[in-house]
Amino acid sequence: MRKSFCTTAILLAFGFVSSCGVAWSADAPLENSDCVKCHAKVVHENQADGGKHKTEVGCLDCHVGGHPPSTPKEDIIPQCSMCHSGEAHFELNNCLGCHQNPHQPLHIVFGDDNVAACNTCHPAQVNEIKDNPSAHGEFDCSLCHHDKHGYIPDCMECHEPHRPGQTYSDCITCHRVHQPTNVTYGQDIPNKDCGACHGDLMDTLAAGTTKHATLQCVYCHKDTHGYLPACQDCHGDPHPQLMMKKFMKCTDCHKDPHDLVK
What we know:
Blueprint: H1 2-14, H2 32-35, H3 40-49, H4 52-55, H5 59-62, H6 73-76, H7 115-119, H8 123-131, H9 141-144, H10 168-171, H11 191-195, H12 199-206, H13 217-220, H14 232-235, H15 241-246, H16 251-254
């Protein structure tokens, strides 16, 4: 035991054994394959989810300049700026605040105030939410995009659905998530989606006996929520001018376009 301890001490003094007990020579260059001998956990993390830190660089591309004890540990820990520069995102302070494990750089842990950081890569989305005020703009990006970078939340994590069975795909047919109050839609929206909020009007329309009862809501209320068409958009001027002058509004006689009186 004494002999083994003394031998190890001598080898350490001359740089022939690593801190984990694996013998190596200070004069022999290390290979990337040597790293796993002492740093198995780190290597496996990188191999499993290292992103470009796995595919474009090797251990020794970042950890340059030797190995302890001949080289102090702090001298072989790289600065992110050694590779990452020239973009606004790379000028942010405290890389490890979000990218806590550089061997798994896309496992991002968000803090409490991330808008400025998100803006360096996602300015279109940040500007969209700023230019279209809504309750969504009152929160940090991480409230919705939590857990992992790239996470897309389901609207129902925060919101009650308009109708039973509603899905995220249904939500985004009308609501753009970064400007949710600007409701727009195509001509394929079913009446049941409109009826989720306007159930009385949907039921009135469906109970009608005129051609209006066969139409989709979006046939008349085109493209943008709240759009009210003029009857003349479809019907032109169907009555003589004298009658039109006497009854200025179509609803003076026909009462309700959802329950049309002939």
